[in-house]
Amino acid sequence: MALDKKAYEALEEIVGPENISEEPVILDGYAFQQHHGTEQAYGGLFCPRPEAVILPETTDEIQTIVRVCNRYKLKVKPHSTGWGFWAAPSSEGIIQLDLRRMNRILEIDEENMYAVVEPYVISSQLQAEAMKRGLNCHIIGAGGSCSILASTTSMVGYGLSGISTGFGGRNLLGAEWVSPLGEALKLGSLGSGAGWFCGDGPGPSLRGILRGFIGAAGGFGIFTKVAVKLYPWPGPPEMPIQGVTPNYYSPLPENIRDYTVTFSGSWDSFADAWYKISEAEIGYVMGKQISAFGSKTAVAQFLTLSNPDLDNDDIPELLESPDVRELTEELTGPTFQLTIAAHSSSDLEYQTKALEKILEETGGKIHPLFADPGMEELMHVMMIKVDRNNLIFDAAGRFGTSFGIFSIPDTLVGVAKAGEEVKRRHIEKGGLMDDGGESTWGGPYERGRIGGHLEELFQYDPHDPKSWQAAWNYLMDAALTVATKGWPPGLSLLPALALSEEKRAPFFAVAGEVIDLLRWQGRIKRAFDPNIVSDPGHYITVKEAEGK
Ligand SMILES: Cc1cc2nc3c(=O)[nH]c(=O)nc-3n(C[C@H](O)[C@H](O)[C@H](O)COP(=O)(O)OP(=O)(O)OC[C@H]3O[C@@H](n4cnc5c(N)ncnc54)[C@H](O)[C@@H]3O)c2cc1C
């Protein structure tokens, strides 16, 4: 569908000819996104091509663009750093709003511990500035190169520092938001002229409506500036990074320790330790990291990362080695990474002693390989800067996630076991990468007070239709398992939001109450977005948004 010439001219007038394009060669770049899509979602490797891409620089320009879209019955889809298909148009007739020109950190308020950012500020950029001031920000598992605004406002925002930094939904403070009708609203304390410090007031709070738990994935207005919480950082103002890509490491300061803790295969001990660590209020970063790459291959991958003489081609040989097999057995399943970052020598002493006691009580062990200084320095960068999770694309080309339930450790252990069992079944049928079965990732939030999450990752080949189909079949089975067990849906229904209504119907059929929830979301969307200008595809479809 070609864009109406008058509409294009009206959009061009807003940003100038150099900041808008409808050239297929440019647009196709936006149609290929790293994503979890399967054939069922898109019928191929590509997302729908946008009608045009436009690069605004200010809130005023975004307001005018949205008004033009209302006038010409077009839809818009915001794209910050574009780390997933959720940032792509879900169908034809959509203008891609590429926000890369809005890339400034506007303010860092050290005293009140927040930063005000535009959409294209990445977490690593903010973290580097915050660290100079003894502060740090939450970074999601996707890594430091993601937009901090996007995961705080529009996605779940899970990350392994959650034990001390919460998750996306807890980090959103004051916000500026352009509604689907083109109004610019100032929300939270910002709305009453009291500054950025609070997401809910004094002033109007729309946080629940705009974001909720999972976020609207770009289907409900556009955030133009937001304040995010910052947290204390007891490390140095700059982390000295050594090595060459992808083998980056950083010496540990005296007050920081990185541990890999194992539980001889006992998930119950793993859960007990999780509770006790939360109660003792220790830890800066904590979660299951190693086996996320695939419990079968992860250790071999880590060995290649820590040794510049090894690369991916060495993995098959490493997997044959009895030593690597033994390590793999020890380091996957119920294990986690724990970073302790202490504010004083007595704090370090307390946290270390508390950990020792907890491990004594639960039978946990600090694994010697990862107590090796070289490996500790590598893990240190990985846990604090989240620099390497995107290596998950290396083995099969694409990965997906499932389960992802937010709950307490005892339930999460059940989730991990179920995830492994369901995935093994599908690996045996063929099509999914044989990652060994157990590839759970996740950890606690806010010292465990608001629970934690575990998700089951899987890997597949985006170039092989058989592999797409296997991924789809697995996702269906995972969603069904979650519903049958009576667990909250978590991330299990997220993939369905990429699908057309009829294709997602089977997903929703297994979780009836979610459909009610979506109907309510649809009513809210219609109230704010009567012309359905915000692409509803990954949020609420046109039919649902129209209340049908
Ligand atoms: C390797 C990998 C690992 C991942 N791990 C995690 C994880 O650990 N935790 C987690 O929570 N997620 C994870 N994800 C998913 C992740 O949340 C999203 O991919 C991430 O937030 C992508 O965001 P981005 O920062 O690149 O923003 P984008 O991809 O640009 O945007 C993300 C969504 O927000 C919308 N959006 C962007 N900007 C705006 C705006 N200004 N206003 C309104 N809506 C907007 C987009 O339309 C899109 O729907 C992972 C993804 C990958 C590829």
> Radius of gyration, Cα only, in angstroms?
23 Å
C-alpha geometry:
globular
Query: CATH class of the largest domain, anyone?
Result: Alpha Beta
Q: How many β-strands, per DSSP?
A: 18
How many domains make up the 3D coordinates? 5
| Structural class by helix and strand composition | alpha+beta
On the 0 to 100 scale, the average pLDDT is 90
**What is the CATH architecture descriptor of the largest domain?**
2-Layer Sandwich
Bound molecules: flavin-adenine dinucleotide
Brief descriptors of the model:
Alpha-Beta Plaits, 548 residues, Uridine Diphospho-n-acetylenolpyruvylglucosamine Reductase, domain 2, single chain, 5 domains, Uridine Diphospho-n-acetylenolpyruvylglucosamine Reductase, domain 3, alpha+beta, binds flavin-adenine dinucleotide, 5-stranded antiparallel sheet, 20 helices, 18 strands, globular
